[in-house]
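Quick one: structure tokens for this chain, please?
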Amino acid sequence: MKKEIQFSLVYRDMWQSSGKYVPRKDQLARIAPVIIDMGCFDRVETNGGASEQVNLLYGENPNQAVRTFCKPFNEAGIKTHMLDRGLNALRMNPVPADVRQLMYKVKHAQGTDITRIFCGLNDPRNIIPSIKWAKEAGMTAQATMCITYSKVHTAEYYINLAEQLIEGGAQEICLKDMAGIGRPHMLGVIVAAIKEKHPDIIIQYHGHTGPGFSVASMLEVAKAGGDVLDVAMEPLSWGKVHPDVITIQAMLKDAGFRVKDINMKAYMEARSLTQEFIDDFLGYWIDPKNALMTSLLVGCGLPGGMMGSLMADLKGMHAAINANLKKKGEKELSEDELLVQLFDPVCEERRPDEPLQPFDGRERLHPYGSRYVGYDPR
């Protein structure tokens, strides 16, 4: 019989990819026991990144929310994990080293077991210090590789990156396929190579469903030796979010893997509660397009969480853009036309025609504003 594959419910990311939201503390307290009763999850994503900023925006203390949500899972023996932005901690800009070091002690005290440390540039220098601090604080340090698809981001690139992160002390590796554009075969090659050299390193795959690859990717990752898969549940699965646990569980079971059974009564209760939370607040901001998959994302590779924000922003700006076009006597744009215009420049940035430049050691300004040292990652 094949190995067991564990599931993590990415409850935090389900909300972010739908509309940049997180339920209130009292709502999280209501659904946590139901998630536990489903019986199929070994891990649950509880906090980190944008969710705690959303807490602050509607006047709730994120520290209390994290403690409240983590406590039932801690007591049930289900591991909790968070997303942190490496050099930026939980913010969108760099944070002093002593503050980042303290953050892991605080998060561990609040009940978070695993921290998923990532850098949008995949720069080990922005990840390895956090690995050390997370382990010192008693957390499991899961180092992250942000997956994309380009002439630079080959299987060899990621295999070499994983080696650097493991050498830097990473206890686990996450393949964070935030746009879901990682090709299944390539992901399998990466996982198999890591497992061949480091069989004891846990590998967790996180893939959004936007462009449609992620179900196949999960099967390839499992066949290659992956250990944990991030899944979602209705009514916040599929679309720009993640595959549903029911589908992935059935697929893996058929392929001979050992997977936990799903308590469907609890699943339906969790589904109903989540819909109630949507109706209470988020329904005003969810764009219907976020519930849909689209192959347009294969080219631009925009992350699922970014699409949740983009569609909400686009909805608000659409009327203003058309008012300006009308004032200038120009043709107004439909939402779809505007979306394609936004996608096109990103596609061009991801597939540059110019050859890669050799290392020159000079500091450059990344398009998003952070500074980095220019080099050829190959």
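The longest strand covers residues 41-48.
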